[in-house]
Structure formats: structure tokens, C-alpha cells
Design goal:
Strands 1, 2, 3, 4, 5 and 6 form a six-stranded mixed β-sheet that branches. The relative contact order is 0.20. The chain is an alpha/beta fold. The protein is built from five helices and six strands, in the order βαααααβββββ. It folds into two domains: 75 residues, Ribonuclease T2-like (Ribonuclease Rh, Chain A), CATH 3.90.730; 95 residues, no CATH class.
């Protein structure tokens, strides 16, 4: 069930380098949920869950096996999850957006009833509160009937990516080439869903 307020959940902590946005086929220890203590599991359940499928443990395993293994020379096993939680709590993205009056809205019968926001509005609001470093945002589009002549997509903010240095202690600029899925039309306005992901690089 979706909350009545805007909430960003964790998508993951993705190791990357200058030539690739993510690493694949990394070698490392397999995920084992039994190595997590109850306090860590509780913290993850409130912040790191798959809002589409509702299977948090499987989501953690998928993210760790694909990305956590790539950082095991920096964050060992459960430290990967603890570090991601700490980075997630550094900035309350929902609160930052709300401060600039960028808020989720209920479904409307017509496009004209939505209050929409530009890419620049969203990114500038976040960047001004997260150290001035650039962020990447991702969107998805959903078609809504416009008229008998066709339909026009409503574009939702789906994910915010914050980028960090290797140790995960300092923010850095994100690669501008990664902001791709919001560029259906640069001037196309966006709306904000009740739940979205935050990804940490």
C-alpha cells in the first residue's frame, strides 16, 4: 500500500568507474540474510524495499549479488548495507523537494489538473541541498487519455541518483550522461509519484 506522503526508498549502492556506470560479474561472497542482525533488518525494511514486488529480502539479495560484491574491497558484507543506510539518511530527498513545494499528487482525470515540474526545478532543488553537486534523475512515462485523437504521456520522477567518492564519505558530481530516461522531451514537465527510488553511486 502506498503511503499518503512522498517517500524515497533505496534502490541500491552501485559501484561505478569513469568508463562504466556500473560493474558486472564481480567476484565476492554471496549474500546471506542470516548474517544481518535484527536491528539492521528492521532498518532495511523501512527504507530499502521493492515497492513494486514487495519482496525485500529478494531485493537485497539481487542488489548485493549484482553490486555489493563489486564493493567488497571497500565495504564487507553487512557493512555494505549499513553504509548504504547511512548515506541514504544523509539527505531527506522527499523533504528537500517538499521545501520547494514539489509534492506528489493524487491521480487526476485530466492532464490539465496536475501541477507539473520541470527537470531543472527538481534537480536544482536537490542539488542546492546536497552540497551543490550534480545529481541524476530517472523518470517513467504513463499514457493517459488526452482526446479522441490520441494520448499524451504523463512523466513521473522515478529515481534520484546521488554520487559519492570511493569511500562513500563525500559527494561528487554525477555523470551527466546518466540522466537519460527523463529526456523524452527536455521541456516536458514532470509530476512526482508517492514513492520513488534513491540510488547511491
Amino acid at each position: 500500500m502506498q503511503p499518503s506522503h512522498l517517500q524515497f526508498t533505496i534502490h541500491g549502492l552501485w559501484p561505478a568507474n569513469k568508463s562504466s556506470s556500473s560493474s558486472l560479474d564481480c567476484k565476492g561472497d554471496a549474500f546471506n540474510v542470516n548474517e544481518m542482525d535484527d536491528a539492521l533488518k528492521k532498518a532495511l525494511l523501512s527504507s530499502w524495499w521493492d515497492w513494486r514486488k514487495g519482496k525485500p529480502v529478494e531485493f537485497w539479495q539481487r542488489e548485493y549479488d549484482k553490486h555489493g560484491k563489486c564493493s567488497d574491497n571497500v565495504f564487507l558484507k553487512t557493512e555494505y548495507f549499513r553504509k548504504t543506510l547511512a548515506m541514504y539518511h544523509d539527505f531527506d530527498i522527499a523533504q528537500i523537494l517538499q521545501k520547494d513545494n514539489i509534492v506528489p499528487q493524487p491521480l487526476q482525470p485530466k492532464m490539465s489538473l496536475y501541477k507539473l515540474y520541470s527537470i531543472d526545478q527538481i534537480t536544482k532543488a536537490i542539488e542546492s541541498e546536497t552540497g551543490g553537486h550534480s545529481v541524476n534523475i530517472r523518470c517513467y512515462q504513463q499514457y493517459q487519455k488526452k482526446s479522441n485523437n490520441g494520448s499524451k504521456p504523463l512523466i513521473y520522477l522515478a529515481q534520484v541518483a546521488l554520487c559519492y567518492n570511493r569511500s562513500g564519505n563525500n559527494r561528487t558530481n554525477c555523470d551527466p550522461g546518466e540522466t537519460t530516461s527523463c529526456n523524452f522531451n527536455k521541456s516536458e514537465p514532470k509530476t512526482v509519484p508517492r514513492i520513488a527510488h534513491i540510488k547511491l553511486w
